[in-house]
Amino acid sequence: TRQMIKQHKEIMPDLNCAQVNDATLKIQSAYRGFKTRKELKESGEDLPDLKAADVVNATIKIQSAYKGFKTRQMIKQHKEIMPDLNCAQVNDATLKIQSAYRGFKTRKELKESGEDLPDLKAADV
Description:
The chain is mostly helical. The protein is about 70% helix and about 0% strand. The chain contains four helices and no strands. It has helices spanning about 1-10, 20-45, 55-75, 90-115. The longest helix is centred in the first third of the chain and has 26 residues, at about 20-45. The relative contact order is 0.03. The mean pLDDT is about 85.
């Protein structure tokens, strides 16, 4: 019997391998889905109409709640990575970015309206 066990150990896959775990999960989920569909069919219950307005609204509500949960969870995990918005350096960088954008926006609007920018190097300025 010990020889048989040794032979079978050589044939058996490593159960801690990631690929074996992934394959196991896929097989289990496929079987669970098959089993659930079979039970629904036998009980006579129909699946809900996925295009019905109330089902669509419920789906959107569930999805948005889950996305919010995952976002809050991610923020909680990465909180130390997020910059302190009250820091002076962050405020200075914010002002620089905002002023650069405002200047870009103003120059673009002037160009579209046909007005020329004043020549700052001119003697009459």
